[in-house]
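Sequence dictates fold. Next comes a concrete instance:
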Amino acid sequence: MKRSYLLIILLLALAGAVYYFTREDPYSTLGKDNDFAVRDTAKIGKIFIADRDGASVTLKKNSKYWFVNDGYRANPAIMENLMRVIYGMEVLMRPPQAAVPSMVKSLAANAYKVQIFNTSNELIRAYYVGGVTPNEGGTYMIMEGSEQPYVTGVKNRDGGLRANFFTEIEKWRDKTLFEYKVDDIKTLSLEYPKLRNRSFQIFKKDGQFQVDPLFSTTPKSKEMLSNSRVEAYLRNYKSIIAEAFANEVDGKDSITQMLPFAIFKIEDVRGKRKEVKLYPIIPTNKQGFQALDNQGNAVPPEKYFTIIDNKDAMITQELLMGKVLWAYDYFFDKK
């Protein structure tokens, strides 16, 4: 009886050893040429993308955010979309052998190289993303080290996958201009260089927000400060996102030599400061002159050329920026 138990134990141990050493690693591509997806995207810690011209980007994740090339926060919406693609990739078709040489040639000419690493910096996927099929319903892909290309896609998703992989850094960057909770703001000032009496500063005193004129030449309001208006105003800074980066815009240097329409200066409770300058983009007519409405008045700007900390340039919309372009007297109850 004891010998039977011992034999069973040995067989179980042997079976366990065989399973352990022959099981498939869910995060490895070794020996596979068609398993492009990563089903547990939470395990992804880094993604490297390179094109045939030598340009590349590296996306890295810390405990909270993704970053581009170790310097800029990545756009969370774009990263979320990329994770969906990486998770949902599947082979739509194994092409006939006669089509393989032309597909491989196409991949060699214009594919993006993609390497995916886990949170331990171990390579778990490496493949090339090529162009789309003639009907744009699939994408040519091939695993690194393989000679067999495939047509891939994501179930219930139209279009190719190539558009999700690119090397232009600014396309990956987060376009968030302001992202503050009310209690995160230590001080805030808004200066209108041509309208000094509308300029103001907000700060905390004895645990309560106060609003003062920014310039000593502006008399303090004798009206009652509305705390609800102050908090409503500060809540507008929770999420304001720019339309696009504009660092390559022609004439950037000459624009920044002009007097800004508005200058924001914000310091948060951690001591981090941000300065934002707005320059109106004047609407023009077909002849290139300032656009006028039916009454002959200048059409107000819909967008601003925006400079952040004297470095980055962005385009912002009046539709969003108007929420924070208040004036000093807006914060007080009128009798």
User: Anything to note?
Assistant: Residues 213 and 219 are 7 Å apart (CA to CA). The first strand starts at residue 44 and ends at 50. Confidence is low (pLDDT under 50) at residues 5-31. The first helix runs from residue 2 to 22.
